Amino acid sequence: MAVLCTASAVQKSGSVTRAHASTRKATAVHRRGATASASANRSPAAAPGDGAASVPSRRAALAALVASVASVGAAVNASPAAASVDSLQAGTVRHTDAEWRELLSPEAYSVLRQSGTEARNASPLVKEKRVGTYLCGGCDLPLFPSAAKYESGTGWPSFFDVLPDSVKTEPDNSIAFMPRVAVVCRRCEGHLGHVFKDGPPPTGLRYCMNGVALKFEPQQA
Ligand SMILES: [Zn+2]
Description:
Blueprint: H1 23-46, H2 56-76, H3 80-85, H4 97-103, H5 106-112, E1 132-136, E2 142-145, E3 149-150, E4 158-159, E5 167-172, E6 180-185, E7 191-196, E8 206-209, E9 214-218
Antiparallel strand pairs: 1-2, 1-9, 3-4, 4-8, 5-6, 6-7, 7-8
Helix pairs in contact: 1-2
Bound molecules: zinc ion (ZN).
C-alpha cells in the first residue's frame, strides 16, 4: 500500500503572484464574490422582459438561456459582477516560493509546494478521531469533515469524501506505469495527496492525504 502514496517527483510550477490579503480576508472576498455573482446571474430572469419576452416560447427560450449562462457563470466564477468585486483570481491564495518557505515548516513545504509525501504513520492526524474539520495547511481552506474520515490502514489520513469546492484533481504520471490522480487545494493549489477508487461507500473514493498538509480544527463545544 505504501507505494500508492509515494512521493511525486513532479515539481509544481511556482506561484509568483503575491498575495494581497490574509487567508481569512481572501475567504471573505471569495464569499462576497460568489454571492454577487449568483445574484447578478439571477437578476436578468427576475427583471421584466421587453416586448419579445411576452411571447411564451420566446420567454421560455430566454429563461433557458439565462439559466444556462448562470450555471456556467457560477461554475467558473467569471461573471462581470464577480470580476468587479475582485479580479478573476478572487478566492485564491498565492505566494512566491520564498514566501511559502517562510510560511510553512520544511516538512509542509516539501509536501504542499513540492508534491512530496510524508512517511507512513508520521502524522498524528492518522489517529485523530475528534469531531471537527480538516483545513488546508497552506491557506486554511476547509477541505474534509471529520465525518468523512475513516481508518484505511495505510498510515495516512484517509477520507471518503471532500467538502464542496475545496479541492481540484490533476493527473500525476510521475511514477512509471502507475498513473495517479493528485489532489490539490482549490485555493492555494498546494499538493495534498492522491485520490483512489478503492474507498468505502457511499463514494468508493479514498482521499489519501498527507497529514502535514492539513490542519485539524476541532469542533467547538
Ligand atoms: Zn490551500
